Model the fold of this input.
Amino acid sequence: MNILYVNVLETATTIAPSSQNSHFNVGNMLVSSLRIPYRSVVTNPNIVIDFATAKTFDCIGLAGHNLATLRCRLLDASDAVLHDETFTDLLSTDILYLTSTSGVYKVWLNMTTLADYVEIGYMSMGEFYHMPRPTFEYDESLEITNEVEQTKFGQSYGTDGVVLQTYSPDFTNITRIQLAEIQTIVRTVRNYKPIFVDMTEDAHDFKPPLYATLNMTTASMSSYSHGVQRCVASLVIRETL
Done:
């Protein structure tokens, strides 16, 4: 189980098309609502992202996009290419794993789409955190957000709303260091900042990555002794749009 919860794109000095071909502001990729997307005029825009200090990357999170391909080049301070990789067969919400690369000062992205324009609801880049293995029998559900009214004659009327995936993983037999790392995630994102969650890592055909928030006001955590001190933690993860 991997979580991408720190988006280093938020610390970029500039995020801009290499040519002025943006229809919606490129910064819309950092607006958490997928309904405020970046949208290009062309079908294969290039985007250049600059950083004032060196960054390390090992994954990219994408949500609410229509990309057919994404090419990512990571460059150092002298514009030498450190890593160059092209991704295809992208899911509508996806986590793309890169070889961990440090010393990155610039990211060059080339995108293609089969539609009339490229669209990205939210994008995140950085280093994922590999969570402790959750218990096998953790709860998952579908949350239905619509409102419904039932008449006295047995008829039902309502709005469509949306259906949201939720996961409630429990972590048992974890160390205090792992507990502290989970607490750091909770303190960083609270219950409104977007995260990318990959419950199955490589088995995306079984459970695709989720664009989500933590859906809780209390993070349940405790410790116990079983020869050595061990800890327990629980999270509630809710899909967001």
Q: What stands out?
A: DSSP finds one helix and 20 strands in the chain. Residues 2-130 form a domain with the Jelly Rolls fold (CATH 2.60.120.260). The chain has two domains: 2-130, 139-239. Helices lie at 176-189.
